[in-house]
Design goal:
alpha+beta; Uridine Diphospho-n-acetylenolpyruvylglucosamine Reductase, domain 2; Uridine Diphospho-n-acetylenolpyruvylglucosamine Reductase, domain 3; 3 domains; 8-stranded antiparallel beta sheet; 17% strand; binds adenosine-5'-diphosphate
Length: 547
């Protein structure tokens, strides 16, 4: 990969000289170890999901070297994280913490500010510190992936599940601090965490919840992973989707293993989704739907086969609706428009009862069809849902990327009430913009219960300026359109965070003004991830960094 400009490498952090930077790096090497500080002065390699870079965004949407680091440092302990934070304050160098940096579609490992030093916590701080079979909980460091936690739990032999998102290679802790979701009944990752250890931007360490109360004789508090709130203001939330601290340990609840049955329901007509949503809502709120089910457009049945778009359609622009239907007809889903994936949990009788209600209620929608895993071929996507929905990490979702050559993706991820009317408004604006920019529309609804995460996956070709620009402009337009209708995103790519944060502007930006007050109090020198989630410290605020 070629750098776009001829610049001396590494790219410097803002407001520093090369001499000052070299001096700072020499000191960091002395403190953390020669081997644990790497300069970003080699060609940028996008790699792939399992060999992802920690130097830039592997799914770059602007130029590849637009959001690059100057260096990466690998701390081995909480103390070393404190040392790095103090070092950053001394040299006024922005640092950007990542757990594993597999946050692809949201910026990956890339810092929001060009030339920041990436603090890669995951490489050396990768221990499962505790698995408690009686409390059904664990305590992990940032470098523990879903695969690693899954294996660690399996190795204990305890009948416990983890909850994994669509892809299992990311960090359990990193995903939870970004408020990611999974698909078992424990799919709300932040909601199922219990206790944190955080290094503040000044170098102080705090423990939240019951962890703030020392256990006897220096032990961890025995309730640290049992009770989320402790005493006083509940502070954990401010360390998620923010730049207020570096999380070095985090507790999670683990679900006791149980029997489960996954199913798939297909719906015939494109315009049936309001009716589908009205059917889903009461079932979700009453917990008849046992997990975070997904409603996907049938185009995804094509995409998850891993075959490229060209295989299905070689023409220009979007793949036409009739072409999707034609292919779907010969696939197990048949000629349909929407596919619903759900799972029920618990003893046989319990599941049987739930499935009966599900069959009956969805059966009222004309042309719907329920299928169980044993009715589908072995390579069908439902089997991969069976794994994910019972806490077994998979990589199947990567098959999407084959849709385009040099495939990368971005997400548009607004929240909607679980209602047909609201989802319709969002889909219509998405469709309009996707048509305008000639991008295939891949909508998925992840239904938590009262709300749905509407996840729209924009797949683009990283080697094509036009393809990137279309995806970028389309996303910007959808964020603005959605806000005008009163909808906002739950998460976004680092380059869209100013725009998204700016839509949460009720009462003259009262929330952002509060966040800025917190930021300035906790991080007076503005060294920790400036600009992340749209929060700029005083030092950078209003100086042209916002985009
Ligand atoms: P993943 O672990 O899923 O690969 P990342 O490491 O890319 O995810 O982290 C996802 C997001 O959360 C990034 O925006 C990152 O800056 C932030 N983040 C990750 N780990 C921490 C942490 N330990 N402390 C504070 N922020 C973090």
């Amino acid at each position: 990969a070629e750098r776009t400009q001829v610049e001396e490498l590494p790219i410097l952090p803002p407001e520093t000289t090369r001499a000052k930077f070299n001096e700072a790096v020499a000191e960091l090497r002395k403190d953390i170890g020669e081997r644990n500080v790497e300069l970003n002065d080699k060609p940028l390699i996008d790699g792939w999901y399992m060999e992802h870079p920690n130097t830039h965004d592997a799914f770059h949407i602007l130029e590849q070297d637009d959001t690059v680091s100057s260096a990466t440092v690998y701390p081995g302990s909480t103390e070393e994280v404190q040392t790095i934070v103090r070092w950053a304050n001394k040299y006024l160098i922005p640092i950007y913490p990542i757990s594993m940096g597999r946050n692809l579609g949201y910026g990956g490992a890339a810092p929001r500010i060009r030339g920041a030093v990436v603090v890669d916590l995951g490489r050396r701080m990768d221990k499962v510190l505790k698995i408690d079979p009686d409390n059904c909980s664990c305590l992990v460091e940032p470098g523990v992936s879903y695969y690693a936690l899954y294996e660690a739990v399996q190795a204990t032999g305890y009948p416990l599940w983890i909850d994994t998102p669509d892809l299992g290679g990311g960090s359990v802790l990193g995903n939870a601090v970004d408020r990611g979701v999974g698909y078992t009944p424990y799919g709300d990752h932040f909601g199922c965490h219990c206790g944190m250890e955080v290094v503040l931007p000044t170098g102080e360490v705090v423990r939240t919840g019951m962890g703030a109360l020392p256990g006897k004789d220096g032990a961890d508090n025995p309730c640290w992973q049992s009770f989320q709130y402790g005493y006083g203001p509940y502070s954990d939330g401010i360390f998620t989707q923010s730049n207020f601290g570096i999380v070095t340990k985090m507790g999670f609840w683990l679900m006791p293993e149980t029997d489960h049955t996954s199913y798939m329901i297909t719906f015939r007509d494109e315009d049936q989704y309001p009716e589908i949503m009205s059917t889903i809502r009461p079932l979700a709120i009453n917990k008849v739907l046992g997990n975070v089910p997904q409603l996907r457009h049938v185009i995804q049945e094509l995409a998850v086969t891993g075959k490229p778009k060209k295989f299905f359609y070689d023409g220009p622009g979007q793949i036409p609706r009739e072409v999707i239907r034609k292919w779907a007809k010969d696939m197990p889903c048949g000629d349909c428009s929407w596919v619903f994936y759900g799972t029920v949990y618990g003893p046989d009788d319990f599941r049987k009862g739930q499935l009966e209600i599900i069959r009956r209620e969805f059966g009222k929608i004309d042309g719907s069809r329920l299928m169980l895993p044993e009715e589908l071929p072995e390579d069908h996507y439902l089997h991969s849902r069976v794994s994910v929905c019972s806490g077994v990490p998979v990589l199947r979702e990567l098959d999407w990327l084959n849709w385009m050559p040099n495939g990368a993706h971005l997400f548009f991820a607004p929240i909607a009430p679980t209602s047909g009317e609201d989802v319709k408004r969002l889909f219509e604006l998405c469709r309009k913009r996707h048509d305008e920019y000639g991008i295939d529309l891949f909508p998925t609804l992840c239904v938590a219960s009262r709300e749905s995460h509407v996840i729209v996956n924009l797949v683009y070709d990283r080697s094509s300026k036009e393809s990137k620009k279309a995806a970028y402009d389309c996303l910007r337009a959808m964020i603005a359109d959605a806000a005008a209708e009163g909808y906002g995103e739950y998460r976004t790519h680092i380059l869209f965070s100013d725009q998204v944060a700016g839509t949460y502007n009720w009462n003259n930006n009262a929330l952002m003004r509060m966040n800025e007050a917190l930021k300035d109090a906790l991080d007076p020198n503005g060294i920790l991830a400036p600009g992340k989630n749209g929060i700029w410290p005083k030092r950078f605020r209003g100086k042209g960094w916002e985009i």
